Amino acid sequence: MRLVTWNTQSCRGIDGRVSPERIVKHARALGDFDVLCLQEIASHYPAVGAPGDQLQELAALLPGFTLLFGAAVEEFDLQGDGSRRRFGNLVATRLPVAEVRHHALPYPADPGVESMPRMCTVVTLVDPELGALRVMTTHLEFYSRPQRMAQARAVRELQIEYCAQADGPPKPGDEGSPDAGKLHTRQALLCGDFNLQPQDAEHSAIVEPFAGGAWWDAWPLLHGEAPRPPTFSVHEVKYTGHPVTFDFVFVSDELRPRLRSFVVDTGTQASDHQPMLVELGAG
User: Fold this and answer.
1) Using an 8 Å Cβ cutoff, are 130 and 280 in contact?
2) Is the pTM of this model over 0.90?
3) Rounded CA gap, 68 and 121, in Å?
4) Domain containing 112: what range?
5) pLDDT digits over 232-283, tens only?
6) How many structural domains compose the chain?
7) CATH, residue 53
8) Of 9, 105, 261, 278, which alpha carbon lies 20 to 30 A from 86's?
9) DSSP SS3 for 161
């Protein structure tokens, strides 16, 4: 299974041009992906260069894919035309989808600090080689460190909860009902823009082991002590002043031996973040 994850900055490149088509083109050039996880997708937000619906545009660009969108922010323009505005994370996949869930992440008060709500989308897929697995994508808070830490702990807690469900599934209800049996699995991959660096306490909070498992940072699993390619502020440094690694892929214990490759495209300027490709295989 090949997965590309990318914070698209509302599909806006370093040149200021907003183009979902360019995002999809560059993602395809990186690899023939089965799953595409995009952060910062916008609908009817002129302020970020998305007056229209990027979800519709991406759906047209990805025939044969199922698109699943989780809105971290969903609001209505009460001062203008009343349009519904959405901003969040997208998972597009050509694999069979068993279930999708959207989890709001903690948003504790941090007075006087710019911030926005955050969420995590969880999609349970069935891959022909890997079997059932969960793909989880998220985008943690940039400005507020207390919020980011709370969210980092929350994505760890989500994995603990999902693993517990897999180990001890609930009694299934009637077939076809909402409480019918679900496809539970411990196999999981967590990706996105975490707005933290590998040495940060928030990273340690994510990978802290729990009874029966842990999240594992995929880069050192494959590359050891090799320097990480930067994923943010590579071509434009106004936010951090220098290139940093903010984007990660984490895998569950069960997927560790199935990691095959991890590539970061540091060349493209189609967003202010860099896309990443990870490949997993059976065996």
Assistant:
1) yes
2) yes
3) 8
4) 2-170+180-280
5) 999 999 899 999 999 999 999 999 999 999 999 999 999 999 999 999 998 7
6) 1
7) 3.60.10.10
8) 278
9) helix
